[in-house]
Amino acid sequence: MRYRRNKNSIDILKEKSPLAGQLTDYEILELIDRMPLQTYAENAIILTKGEPANSLMFLISGEVNIHLNEHRIAKLTQGDVFGEAMFSDQGIRIADAVAVEPTEVLLFDLSTYESLLRQDIKVALKCKLIFEQLYKHNAMANEYFFTKDSAKYLALVAHNEMKKTLVRFVQSHVKKINKFPLVATGTTGEMLYKEAKIVLTKKVKSGPLGGDQAIGQMISTDNICGVIFFRDPLSAHPHHADIEALGRLCDVYQVPLATNPTTAVAVLNYLADTEQYEPPLVNSLLESYSQQQAQVVQGESSQSQDSP
Fold first, then answer.
1. In which region does residue 68 sit, left (phi positive, over 0), alpha (psi from -120 to 50) or beta (all else)?
2. What confidence tens digit (pLDDT) does each residue in 26-63 have?
3. What SS3 class is residue 149?
4. Neighbours of 105 (CB within 10 A)
5. How far apart are the first and last CA of the chain?
6. What is the C-alpha separation between 271 and 224, in angstroms, rounded?
7. Contact 227/253 with Cβ under 8 angstroms?
8. What's the CA gap between 166 and 159, in Å, rounded?
9. From residue 297, how far is each of 27, 43, 290, 302 by CA, in Å?
10. How distant, in Å, are the alpha carbons of 210, 212, 227, 246, 247 from that of 241?
11. Nearest to 12 by CA among 103, 78, 64, 83
12. Which residues are marked as active site?
């Protein structure tokens, strides 16, 4: 039985894990012999945010989700490693690991590493290097979840027939516009760079390809201070629903929206004049909606707890 377990584990670690191509079969077997097999039931919490980062695990069977602040930042399957912060300067775990289904893992903890150091320092140091590199790779890949963008961008958008008008407007007000980090949709951003010589901090896709929605998402995360959107009122647009949704979000979050050069001057002057600028008033509609949604969630949670 143990031979079968070891054979299965060797195949997984040498073919699907970060050890693949790094350790020989014998070295992997030497490692497996030191790692106890642990089992977890469905929905069991395997690792908890805030606990000491003193072990890592190889996923032998089942699936595991990595959760951070109510977000799933990774879905792990057979051969994956988690808990690699053990080989970093991170003293505590920064995310939870939860079993999606009945799960088996091989545990690599400090005692395993110390035992390996005494018996085969070469393999121990190989493992240390592999896990350090894995930690760095995953930390960079998940940077979005660990770092909040606190910048407030000025969004520059224009329909095709209004792009030249926006370029001329930017050229006329370049000093004020350059006071802000800028975001623009695809083609508009390219024209502004070529013809108005302004550099964007962020660029999203063209409007019909989701750019308006991307800016709307930035509004919802409090990353937009104002929107200058020169709209063409005489033409039909295939992404009209996105355009309307962007304007609605500006109303919801009280973000200044200018749709033509005249209103753009007013909005730009308002944003650029720090003495004139006033924080938006509390949006009573948004506040009321948030309270209603909180009550819905609380009600659903209570019903779930009361269910047999």
1. beta
2. 999 999 999 999 999 999 999 999 888 899 999 999 99
3. coil
4. 28
5. 40
6. 11
7. no
8. 9
9. 51, 21, 11, 9
10. 11, 10, 17, 9, 10
11. 78
12. 212
Q: Half-sphere exposure of residue 275, counting CA atoms within 13 Å on the CB side?
A: 0
Phi/psi for 171 (5° steps) reads -60, -35
Which among 272, 277, 227 has a CA at the least distance from the CA of 251? 227
Residue 106 β-bridge partners: 37, 58
Cα 57 to Cα 216: distance, rounded to the nearest angstrom: 40
Ordered by where they begin, the domains of the chain are 2-146 (2.60.120.10), 153-287 (3.40.50.1380)
Round to whole Å and give the CA distance between 152 and 205: 19
Q: Return the C-alpha torsion angle 58, 63, 68, 70, nearest 10.
A: -170
User: Residue 157's closest CA among 70, 47, 267?
Assistant: 267
How does DSSP assign 256-274, residue by residue? -EE-SHHHHHHHHHHHH-T
Q: How far apart are CA 72 and CA 95, in angstroms?
A: 10
Backbone angles phi and psi of 15, in degrees to 5: -110, -30
Q: What is the pLDDT of residues 114-173, one digit of tens each?
A: 999 999 999 999 999 999 999 888 877 666 555 667 889 999 999 989 999 999 999 999
- Beta strands 153-158; 224-230: pairing state: parallel
User: Could you report the per-residue pLDDT of 90-123, keeping only the tens digit for each?
Assistant: 778 888 999 999 999 999 999 999 999 999 999 9
Residue 306 has pLDDT above 60, yes or no: no
Distance CA 150, CA 70 (A): 20
Question: pTM for this one?
Answer: 0.54
Tokens standing for residue 226 = 């104002």
